[in-house]
Design brief:
Layout lengths: L12 H17 L3 E5 L5 H6 L9 E6 L3 H8 L3 H7 L4 H13 L5 E7 L12 E8 L5 E6 L4 H22 L1
Parallel strand pairs: 1-2, 1-3
Antiparallel strand pairs: 3-4, 4-5
Helix pairs in contact: 1-6
Length: 171
């Protein structure tokens, strides 16, 4: 089993192993991977490029932390963003669709959430995910990780995103 290199010392072993398995499956099936990340700040992209021999299957990633970045880079509709909020089912789906539209055929995954702490109205640990292929259905998942700290939320979000990509590859 291949291992991650740079991030390996700071990630749980099962997360590194899952990343390797997902990358190996994507490489075997020749399906490029695309990421659109907000609250994880590019950690998923870093993880997917950290495995020697498999990182070529990562096609591109978008780090869209601000609302403006989501609109500018992924063409998320400003009205929908204002109406639904950046941390919502609708915006996660719009993010993955935007990332897929700006890439070659493959599987995309989007992550948007409140890693915490945030404003009074923000639920710390609330994260929305969307995952799918160019010509397929988009799956959505909502997680309430709770107040487990920024690092805890981000690590938990990586695990969910990898599971969603794995499910999409096996569909």
């Amino acid at each position: 089993m291949t291992k991650t290199e740079t991030l390996d010392p700071i990630l749980p072993e099962d997360l590194s192993q899952k990343a390797c398995e997902v990358l190996e499956l994507a490489a075997e099936r020749e399906v490029p991977l695309i990421t659109a990340e907000s609250c994880t700040g590019g950690l998923l992209a870093a993880l997917l490029t950290d495995v020697p021999g498999c990182s070529h299957i990562f096609e591109r990633g978008f780090v869209v932390y601000s609302d403006d970045a989501k609109c500018d880079l992924l063409l998320v509709d400003r009205g929908e963003l204002d109406r639904c909020g950046a941390v919502s089912r609708e915006i996660a789906i719009a993010m993955v669709k935007g990332a897929l539209d700006r890439s070659r055929k493959g599987i995309g995954v989007a992550i948007t959430g409140f890693a915490g702490p945030g404003d009074d109205d923000d639920e710390e640990g609330l994260v929305h995910f969307a995952c799918g292929a160019h010509d397929g259905e988009i799956a959505h998942r909502e997680e309430h990780f709770g107040a487990i700290g920024r690092d805890g939320v981000r690590i938990a979000a990586l695990a969910v995103a990898l599971d969603m990509v794995d499910n999409a590859l096996r569909a």
